[in-house]
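Pilot study result, target chain (108 residues):
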Amino acid sequence: MNIKGDVSIKDLLPLGSVVTLKDSNGYRIMITAYFPKKSAFEMLVDNQDETCDIYDYMGIDWYGVPTEKKQHILFNHDKIDTVLFRGYVNEESNAIKALLAKHFYEEE
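Predicted structure:
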C-alpha cells in the first residue's frame, strides 16, 4: 500500500531532525515519528482538510514546550522549508526505514 506518493522512503528525514515549515516564521519542529494518522475527531475539532488523514511526519516544538493548541504537529514533507539539523542515522534507523518501505510503499 503506497500511503504517500509525494515523498520517497529515501527522502524521509531521520527522526530527531529539526526543521522549519513554510509560512511558520521560523518555528522549529523536531521530527518524532513517521506516518502518524490524524483521527476523525481531530479533523472535526481543527476544521482542517479531511482528505489527508495520514501525514509524513509528526513533530514537537523544538524547545520541548507544548503549543497552546496541541502538543504534536502533523505535517507533510512538501511543507518543510528548511532542514536545520539532520537526525542521527545508524543501523537501527536504516532498519526502520527498510521496515517502512516494506509495509507502506509499493514495490516498484
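One observation from the pilot: The first helix runs from residue 40 to 46. A full batch analysis is planned for the follow-on phase.
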